[in-house]
Amino acid sequence: MGIFRRKAREDGPTASGHDDDAASAEVESDDTGAEDIEATDLASETDSVGSDVGDAADADLSDAGDDEADDSHHELPGRLPRPHDLDRSKGPFDRSEVKNLDDRLDFGALALRPLAGMELRLDVDQEAGNITGITAVLGESACQVQVFAAPKSRGIWDDIRDEIADGLITGGGSATEELGPLGIELAVRIPARGNDGRTTYSAARFAGVDGPRWFLRAVFSGAAATDGAAAATLVDFVRDTVVLRGSEARAPRELLELKVPDAVAEAAEEENAPRTLDPFERGPEITEVR
After folding, report:
1. What is the spatial distance between Cα 174 and Cα 75, in angstroms, rounded to a whole number?
2. Are 250 and 149 in contact (CB under 8 A)?
3. Sign of CA dihedral 221, 214, 116, 24
4. Assuming Cys at both sites, which of 135, 155, 194, 244 could form a disulfide with 121, CB separation 3.0 to 4.6 Å?
5. What would the pLDDT profile of 134-151 be if each residue is shown by its tens digit?
6. If DSSP codes are grouped into helix, strand and coil, which group holds residue 232?
7. How many degrees, rounded to 5, is the angle at CA 42 between CA 93 and CA 204?
């Protein structure tokens, strides 16, 4: 039985680099095959795997617009030929490529199918109050997915990959292009200052998929950043994603709107609804002992 259940979280940055509020979903399985969705707490905090990924994950997505890439970026080791088009016949999918979404959770611009044992966390911008991404956690691995508008004429992953790499290398990190299951990926080491003043590094892997007028970005952290076997299930989760771009005109790189699934929101309202007292209901009793 799949369960969307409340999970308590401690304070901490999410994979998007903000001290975000988060909602959590944990999926468990049994032999019934049924699905039961319980209430979720949108005010709980997240301590998601790979918290140092954040600053790199936010690299210039909203500022660069639709300009062509320039030649000012650092030269990457092992830079792969481009463009490299990913075969999307096995996903991620556009809404027009999927018959129905009955077996997926509706998060607005994304429709997702959580896997057994997987926990989903909503990354929320505290100031704006909007959901900026969804992080799937499975064991010691995590993957954050975000979806953006893209130009009709061309993809934007090549440009974004250069910008992320440039920012990391400038900041003392490293970035290397590799060919992975989702096409050209960026394997990175992100620097951070430890409590003892020394510089430490955390690994992450950026993948991007250009679709029809949209761009899906996935950031793998934890064990999935360096272990292909650990990442395999999360890669399948990303491939199973469906993007609902909509027909509205949007600026390139604009974050597409995400929401809490209706069934989850309704369950939360029911759980938080005040209870009406029944005057005829037998209440608690106190036994006097002499």
Report:
1. 11
2. yes
3. positive
4. 135
5. 999 999 999 999 999 999
6. helix
7. 50
